[in-house]
Amino acid sequence: MTSSSSTTATINAISRWLNYILAIPMIVLGILGATLTIFIFTRKSSFQRNPTIIYLLAGATMTAIHLPTVYIQSILVDGFGLGIFNTNDLACREHNYLLYVTTVIAISFPCWAAFDQYASTSRDASFRHRWSSIRVVRSAIIGTNLFWSIVYLPMLVYSGVENRTCILTNVTYRKFNDFLLTPLIYTIGPLTLITLFTRGILLNLNRTTVQSKRDHLTRQIRRMLIPQLIFLAMSGIPFGLQNIYFNLTSNVVKSSLHRAVEHLCIQIIRLFYHFNFVFTFYIYLYMSSEVRKLFRRMTTKFSTMDSSIQEGMVMETCKIEDSTYI
């Protein structure tokens, strides 16, 4: 085996082990975190009435859909060589459609949450009441789901398998997606919105004396949201630009070592971007005393229930033993 072949094999092995060691535990943590977020955010009445929390709850719900339906498929292909969507056109179309739709919807809701924080801290009372309300939240959630579901419908038509790889078969649409749609949605859009809204929130807080500035729950929500927005903006840059690189180099003849390095980079970028989905709950848990309080209450309740069940089983066992002796 040549030095180049040995290096290629090593890099490919690293790519596979990234899935075994990191990706699989991340999926477990992510699904657990999304489930706990949904459970906790629906257990407190003040959370249920807060527009920002409802946006974050919608994001957690979409994360709970994205991780098992999309990310697991990618791990099966890259980590175990089970080419589900790389061998079947229908599976390829389903994978590409869900990949883009669930990802974009999930990252849209933190942006909506940032907008709600901007609206709720505005000095203009009519603007606050108009845009920071439950009615607007419901309309935004439904509209966001419908809008992105329609925008990405061409994925169901233009996706297909070529050379055992799931790709966009229509060249024009592929260029449109790679050079315009993906960078705009994953990089330019979130980065711009997050920067504008965060700056607006800080300006509003410095200029206004509205009650929400002094409200404990509002401060807790803001502490949860801002780290999430910062990481979303940072991770979106490489994730949104990778397709441009691959489109520009699609006609370049690449060695097996070159392809192995590219594949490893894709794995790292994807892992980095999925931190948005996986560690959101744990950011909430670390940054918010309200979430920690509810989490402790929940775990205590489950521990008590478990103890009660065990005690009941012991009592039933004792009754059976007593009746046996009789």
UniProtKB/TrEMBL annotation:
GO terms for molecular function: G protein-coupled receptor activity; neuropeptide binding. Its main location: membrane. Gene3D superfamilies: Rhodopsin 7-helix transmembrane proteins. One of its GO terms (cellular component) is plasma membrane. It comes from the Eukaryota. GO terms for biological process: neuropeptide signaling pathway. The chain crosses the membrane at residues 20-41, 53-77, 97-115, 136-159, 179-203, 224-246, 266-287. It is a multi-pass membrane protein. It is found in: Cell membrane. Residues 33-284 form the G-protein coupled receptors family 1 profile domain. Keywords: Cell membrane, G-protein coupled receptor, Membrane, Receptor, Transducer, Transmembrane, Transmembrane helix. Coiled coil: none annotated. This is G-protein coupled receptors family 1 profile domain-containing protein.
